[in-house]
């Protein structure tokens, strides 16, 4: 019996050894198992610094995002792309999100001042209409998420102005001196004169600026109020009778009194603008910024933006939630597909700013 037990034991040990030879090697121990800490999932910070256009971001949207995520949004406003660029490049505040127009997105991409987006964190990007994709400034939406689109048009108080108004030349006449509100935006002002004189809006050279200077000087003298923040206010208050203003502002006037305030696309031509959210290269809360992008692309949230600021909504699913009256507003939904966008003009932008600043100073 002892010999048989020993033999059985020998056979058992041999079998175990043979099986062990065919066993796969154990996987390498994880960082946690080996005593090291596994790389943590990146998290959003507790605050988000947003630099955006004034009269453009509903407080309800900011509050809703904070309630859901716990991330506080610090909203700082600007009135022009040039002002935004100045604040961004000054470096006093590190912004996590900015809201540039298309030509400014183009410039910032060239200067490598924007972070590339992680589309996996922005699944609601699928709601953006095809017409807002493939645009020259960011064809693949690698750096920007469309917020709203707009154009510039003419608003006429028909109770005060009885003559037909069809374009810029009809507005900027001596008889309307002191009765006009215009955007406080040098690039816009110059573009209006350029197209009136047969040039393209981006045809900015020393020669074209010299050519339009006398006309631009006369037009500036006729304007009572320069306002990019809320140009509708001067019209609502009766301080002026005509305005060349953002289409979203015109849409609010149209909703206020359809008979009194008439919206007109300038006969000489105008352009479309696509304002987007983008993340600066030095942003400290990129994940929080992408969370905010995804949040505002929800149809019900995007609708809130349209309700408060009735520009052209690029969100297909949000448009389905709008009323027929909202969709029929001629200032909210003009034929943008027929218009071009501004393009980055590089150093010529500084020439425009200097020209307009000098002419305004001379008119005072």
From TrEMBL:
A single GO molecular function term of this UniProt record: polyamine binding
Any Pfam family matching the protein: SBP_bac_8
InterPro entries xrefs: SBP (IPR006059), Sperm_putr-bd (IPR001188)
GO biological process, one term: polyamine transport
Keyword list, A-Z: Periplasm, Signal, Transport
Keyword Transcription regulation among UniProt keywords: no
Any one cellular-component term (Gene Ontology): periplasmic space
Entry-linked PROSITE patterns: PROKAR_LIPOPROTEIN
Domain of life: Bacteria
Locations listed in the record: Periplasm
Residues bound to spermidine: 55, 103, 185-188
Predominant localisation class: periplasm
Record PANTHER family: SPERMIDINE/PUTRESCINE-BINDING PERIPLASMIC PROTEIN, SPERMIDINE_PUTRESCINE-BINDING PERIPLASMIC PROTEIN
Name the UniProt record assigns to this protein: ABC transporter substrate-binding protein
Organism: Sorangium cellulosum (Polyangium cellulosum)
């Amino acid at each position: 019996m002892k010999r048989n037990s020993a033999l059985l034991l020998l056979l058992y040990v041999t079998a175990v050894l043979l099986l062990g030879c065919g066993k796969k090697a154990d996987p390498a121990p994880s960082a946690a198992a080996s005593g090291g800490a596994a790389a943590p999932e990146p998290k959003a910070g507790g605050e988000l610094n947003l630099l955006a256009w004034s009269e453009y971001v509903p407080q309800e949207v900011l509050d809703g995002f904070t309630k859901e995520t716990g991330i506080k949004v610090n909203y700082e406003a600007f009135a022009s792309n040039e002002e935004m660029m100045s604040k961004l490049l000054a470096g006093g505040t590190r912004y996590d999100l900015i809201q540039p127009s298309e030509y400014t997105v183009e410039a910032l991409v060239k200067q490598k001042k924007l972070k590339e987006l992680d589309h996996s964190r922005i699944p609601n990007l699928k709601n953006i209409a095809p017409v807002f994709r493939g645009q020259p400034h960011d064809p693949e939406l690698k750096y920007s998420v469309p917020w709203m689109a707009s154009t510039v048009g003419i608003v006429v108080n028909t109770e005060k102005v009885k003559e037909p108004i069809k374009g810029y030349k009809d507005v900027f006449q001596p008889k309307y001196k002191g009765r006009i509100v215009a955007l406080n935006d040098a690039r816009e002002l110059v573009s209006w004169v350029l197209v009136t004189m047969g040039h393209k809006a981006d045809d900015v050279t020393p020669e074209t600026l010299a050519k339009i200077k006398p006309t631009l000087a006369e037009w500036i003298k006729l304007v009572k109020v320069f306002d990019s923040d809320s140009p509708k206010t001067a019209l609502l208050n009766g301080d002026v009778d005509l305005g060349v203003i953002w289409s979203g502002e015109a849409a609010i006037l149209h909703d206020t009194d359809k008979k009194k305030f008439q919206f007109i696309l300038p006969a000489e031509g105008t352009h479309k603008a696509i304002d987007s959210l983008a993340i600066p290269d030095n942003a400290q809360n990129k994940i929080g910024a992408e969370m905010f992008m995804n949040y505002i692309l929800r149809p019900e949230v995007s609708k809130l933006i349209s309700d408060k600021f009735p520009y052209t909504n690029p969100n297909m699913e949000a448009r389905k939630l709008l009323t027929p009256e909202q969709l029929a507003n001629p200032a909210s939904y003009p034929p943008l597909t027929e218009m071009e966008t501004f393009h980055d003009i590089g150093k010529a932008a500084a020439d425009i700013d200097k020209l307009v600043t000098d002419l305004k100073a001379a008119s005072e």
